[in-house]
Design goal:
It is found in: Membrane. It holds the Pfam family ZT_dimer. One of its GO terms (cellular component) is plasma membrane. With about 300 residues, this protein is mainly α. Strands 1-2-3 form a three-stranded mixed β-sheet. Helix 1 runs antiparallel to helix 2. The protein starts with a helix and ends in an 11-residue tail after the last strand. The N terminus is likely disordered.
């Protein structure tokens, strides 16, 4: 059963590695442009967007590193679970960076509200328009992998936020150019921080759920237990655990009490089929025991 996951990981890398490299080039390259133009135009909105794009680039880089590490880990016999959790750790690290960027933007914005600063609106506008185009390109490159990987999904949502951020910077530049209202720059910067925080919280929550081995939200554990009890020959289900190894890879383990006279191979096959068909769990470690066995009664978690 486990071999299917290795194949899935290889397929993910083969399908999306090139797109990730392209997205990294687009995002990282324009991040440098935004930093330079943000300093030139004195625009906090551009600098905050550049900071956000930096986390986008890092998120994409970590997704690439996770794919490469998983491929290399197959030759290491001590890494029996591979390095799938690197992807989750990378997502958690990206969450911390997102929060840091949001806090920095908020602090800088407070200073701009107290003392409005003149901004070169034309340079700001041109940079934001080009940034919007770059973000749309990155969004298209990442979209197909967003449903298969927590890290790619995190990068996708960050770039989606950058699209909105670029639109906001364009609006701010137009307002400043037409009205001279300098407050438009920190207002948009604060709005972008507001976009960053919910996405960071959501990404961090998903990563922590995996690291804490919490049962996936979409799987009803009591329903899993009841379904296993309906398998012909199963008289008892205990020590059931369901968790996520990495994004898109749910696993389970359980002890099954088996009535005498039933063929163990048939019971195990039916139990695995039930987990796969009803709950999408493709990797299950099932221990079978005689129905009167009491060896697990002292086991506690």
């Amino acid at each position: 059963m486990g071999a299917g996951h290795d194949h899935g990981a290889m397929s993910l890398g083969a399908r999306h590695r090139g797109r990730l490299w392209a997205a990294l080039g687009v995002t990282g390259g324009f991040m440098v442009v935004e930093i330079v133009m943000g300093l030139f135009s004195n625009s906090l909105a551009l600098l905050s967007d550049a900071g956000h794009m930096a986390t986008d680039a890092l998120g994409i880089a970590m997704a690439l590193a996770a794919i490469i590490a998983v491929r290399r880990s197959r030759s290491r016999p001590r890494r029996t679970f591979g390095l799938y959790r690197l992807e989750v750790l990378a997502a958690l690290g990206n969450t911390v960076l997102l929060f840091a960027v949001a806090v920095w933007v908020l602090i800088e914005s407070v200073g701009r509200f107290r003392e409005p600063t003149e901004v070169a609106s034309t340079a700001m506008l041109v940079t934001a328009v080009v940034g919007l185009i770059a973000n749309l390109v990155s969004l298209g490159l990442l979209r197909s992998g967003a449903s298969e990987s927590i890290n790619v999904r995190g990068a996708y949502f960050e770039v989606l936020g950058d699209v909105l951020g670029s639109i906001g910077v364009i609006v701010a530049a137009v307002v400043i150019a037409t009205t001279g209202w300098w407050y438009a720059d920190p207002v948009i910067a604060v709005a972008m921080a507001g976009l960053i925080l919910p996405r960071a919280a959501r990404l961090g929550r998903d990563a922590l759920r995996i690291l804490l081995q919490t049962a996936p939200e979409h799987i009803d554990v009591p329903a899993v237990e009841e379904r296993l009890r309906t398998v012909p020959g199963v008289t008892d289900v205990h020590d059931l655990h369901v968790w996520t190894l990495t994004s898109g890879m749910d696993v389970a383990s359980a002890h099954l009490g088996i009535a005498s006279g039933h063929e163990l191979g048939g019971v195990l096959s039916a139990a695995r089929s039930a987990l796969h068909e009803d709950f999408g769990i493709d990797h299950a470690t099932l221990q079978v025991e005689p129905q009167d066995d009491r060896g697990c009664e002292s086991l506690t978690w």
